[in-house]
Write a structure and sequence with these properties.
alpha/beta, 390 residues, Aspartate Aminotransferase, domain 2, homodimer, 14% strand
Chain lengths: 390, 390
């Protein structure tokens, strides 16, 4: 039986066109884009073509504002640490939210060891940041606000445009971790009026190990990786040209197919939520009911553990996850779920279901039916469930 | 006519076996090694297989001592900045040489902005560091010595084992940029007694955009990229699995074929140097006559400019470079060549010729003959040459 992948957020399959472009790139074995000779010319042209495609996806004013990196995580580290170090003379205060990805949280924790101070703004029960709280947190020492776009565990989408307005008014730089949103929903850096966004190719059917960082012209930040003059001196190291070619093709398709993919995913998401509510009792759909990623559903199943559900679904060749792959293996309950006031037990019973262009309604229906049985089996064995029903 | 690539150091062609393994990886489209489900298991196994192969190449005591990065440059930044930040309380003094790659020099320059002090030890006319000078430079504030293995412009190989002994005796960490040596000549981290080495897949017929960092157990350094728990918490970000698979295969072949490749390259190097000396007047072969990379010749052609030679050779479909691709585009004379007391004009007339497994004697012979004609043509136009011969 074919595997039903409902864990797109960790392992988004390559588009066939991306796969073909990467295979062709490997066969051609382009030179080094930094070489002065003709082998370098060809490689350089291909690199810049990919940059144009990525720029178009986020409506960057110029391809030159895009830096290719090795992951969304590297982009986030580059943005946060780069701004912090370059602007230390102005101040050492940074504002974030309490539901950020580990890449943001741990970059900030690292900076606290060098004397930076971080204010973490709390979200409400839907996972939303209140812009008024961000406004209040700004001091004359604040140099950066970093708040994510779409949350990777509950899907909630933050009011980035409004937050950027506040930041600009106060002359503070704004970075957003847009790893889950770029290529999935429209992200327009000019319309948002944002300074920095981080994103990753594998979220929109491109390869793993390639990311992008948009840097608005004039933003002052240090490189994370110093050395040669690649990426206009902003990120040294010989480029992963094969991966970048894949990212370029994935970006072009994501841009062209944005509307059709969005309506497909919204249909699947509605079908999934409706089906789950109909067929399974005692569940919670987490995140904001409207302001939410189109390709993600966070589901808490009461009285049982998410890890057990994942394993039993895996035996039925259905792949889902309990949380960000980057945090799997950790036994602690998700900081995101605890931040939206889910109780500890419900947080432990939470699944993240993500899907994409190639996902079918049949797969969604099969998942609901199999999950129904898995939940029934697990609840039969659960002392918590028995107690609550007696 | 087929292109004769004598610029392996910037664009080392993929081994056919590496190419095939990467294409297969793209077709299989493995999952995310961090996922808890079965798609993750497969990806994780493949990742660890590649790590074992790389560990074997440098005789690492354990595969766990290898961290995969996105380039030799990232590895170098990670090692230098990571040791500097983690050991700041002990001291802020670092020792290096004056012929390091830009990745080392610029990482160090960055650290000087955060209060670190750098001592740069000079090399002799052959490009060799004198260990006694390193010994003298050590103070009780010294936390790190970073000296490269094989120089990327002149080929000189430093006495790393002796330098490591000094460092260990003084309780100072030792890092070596081994980008040009790992996979080209034997590099045995246990025999060297070294703490950290940086290396890159594309130097030994693997893909660009993948590097490695060896960290001896017990060495204290911060990650460069914080976030998820990948690479045992030492380097966050979803892995470039396709590239890493390619690096693993390239490492295995480099390890197996080390001796045959070495004797092939030594033969080519002798033939090249002998032929150049026979056929072209007024040339200088730079670097140490014996302690030198087997796959690199640095040649200064008096009275003419290297860039003109590169362009004319390019028209004849022969690819060489004037210096590190990372520094090409810069009009300044190479800091490496000036450090070995080459005069400015000779430094401007310098070519770096690098080759590898697939290079043939015929290609070397053709290069010498074409170069002879190119040099004659350019010297005919050179006022410098005419003056020196009247």
């Amino acid at each position: 039986m074919k595997v039903t992948n409902l864990d797109y957020i960790s392992a988004n399959p390559l588009l066939p066109e991306v796969r073909d472009a990467m295979i062709e790139a490997i066969k051609k074995d382009y030179g080094n884009p930094s070489s002065a000779h003709s082998l370098g010319d060809e490689a350089r042209n291909i690199l810049e073509k990919a940059r144009e495609r990525v720029a178009l996806l986020i409506n960057s004013p110029s391809p030159d504002d895009i830096v290719f990196t090795s992951s969304g995580t590297e982009s986030i580290n580059h943005a946060i640490k780069g701004v912090a170090f370059a602007n230390a003379k102005k101040g050492k205060h940074i504002i974030t939210s309490n539901i950020e990805h580990n890449s943001v949280l741990k970059s900030l924790r690292r900076l606290t060891k060098s004397g930076y101070r971080v204010t973490s703004v709390e979200v409400d029960k839907n996972g939303l940041v209140d812009p008024a709280n961000v406004h209040k947190a700004i001091t004359d020492q604040t140099i950066l606000i970093s708040i994510m776009h779409g949350n990777n565990e509950i899907g909630t989408i933050q009011p980035i445009k409004e937050l950027c307005c506040i930041a600009r008014e106060k002359n503070v730089l704004f970075h957003s971790d847009c790893v889950t949103s770029v290529g999935i929903m429209p992200v327009d850096v000019q319309e948002l009026g944002i300074d920095l966004i981080s994103f990753s190719a594998n979220q929109f059917n491109g390869p793993s190990g390639v990311g992008g960082l948009y840097i608005r012209k004039g933003v002052n930040l240090w490189p994370l990786i110093d050395g040669g003059g690649q990426e206009n001196g902003r990120r040294a190291g010989t480029e992963n040209l094969i991966g970048i070619i894949g990212m370029g093709v994935a970006a072009e398709f994501a841009h062209q197919e944005m509307q059709s993919r969005l309506s497909h995913m919204k249909k699947l998401k509605n079908r999934l939520i409706t089906g789950l509510k109909e067929k399974i009792d005692d569940i919670i759909i987490n995140g904001h009911p409207e302001l939410s990623l189109p390709n993600l559903v966070s589901l808490s199943v009461k009285y049982i553990e998410g890890e057990s559900i994942v394993l039993m679904l895996d035996e039925e060749k259905i792949i889902v996850s309990t949380r960000s792959a980057c945090a799997s293996g950790s036994l602690r309950a998700s900081h995101v779920l605890l931040s939206i006031d889910l109780d500890y037990a419900d947080a432990q019973g939470t699944l993240v279901i993500t899907f994409g262009k190639a996902t079918t309604e049949d797969e969604i229906d099969r998942f609901i039916n199999v999950l129904k049985n898995v939940v029934a089996t697990l609840r039969d064995m659960s002392p918590l469930y028995k107690k609550s029903n007696t």
